[in-house]
Design brief:
Rossmann fold; two-stranded antiparallel ribbon; 23% strand; 235 residues
Amino acid sequence: MKPIIGLTTFINEKDGYNSVSRNYINSVYAAGGMPVNIPIVENEKDYDAYLGMLDGIIFTGGGDISPRYYGENPLRQVNAMSSIRDEWELGLFKKAYEKNLPMIGICRGIQLINVALGGSLYQDINEQIPSSLGHYPKETQMDELYHSVNILKESDLYHILGLDKIYVNSFHHQSVKILGSDLAVAATSEDGIIEGIEATDSRFLIGVQWHPEALSKRYPIFLELFKKIVSAARI
C-alpha cells in the first residue's frame, strides 16, 4: 500500500475553496506516495482523526505567518496573513511532531516549522537585511532556477540530494531568523539566508525555502525530497 502523505491547504477567500497547487500532488504521486489534501478546519482542536490517516505531512507554501506568533509586531511589508491557517497548522504540526510523523516544510512550511518550535523570522528580507540578494522574482515562472544554495555536507539534505551546491527557484520575502529548538541549518544562500533546516535528532523533519514541487518534473533531482518522505513514511 502506498504511504499516505497529507498536504496542507490554503483558504481561497474569493471562491470559498481550500486549495493547494497540483505540483505538490503530482510530486508526491510521482515519488510513490498517495497525496491527500488536508482542509483547514476553523476552531478544530482534535487533530488525531487526521493524523491517524496519514503516514507523513508536507506543510505547503502560502502567505505570511503572523509575527505575533513569535512575539513581534508586523512590518509594513507583512500584509498577507490568515490567523485561521496559522492556528490550524501550528496545532497540526505540534501534534504530528509529538507523534514523530515524517514531515517536510516548503517555503511558508519551513517558516511554520521554525516558529512552531520557538524560532523567529525575518519579516522582510530586503528591509531587514539590506545586503541580501534577490529572493522574490515576481514575474518569473515557478520552474525557473533563480539563485544558488549551499548545502552542508554533514546534513540529511546533502545525503538526499547528493550535492553541496544547487540552483533553486525562489518566491519568498521572509526567512528563518533565530532557529527553533532542536533544529539545525542544512542550507544557506550566498547572502547567508537560511534556505534549509532539519531536525537534530533521528526524526525525518526537513524544511526548504524554495519550491521543489514546482521543479521536480523539469529537474528530477528535486523529486528526491518527495521520494525520501515517502520512504520515511513506510517505516
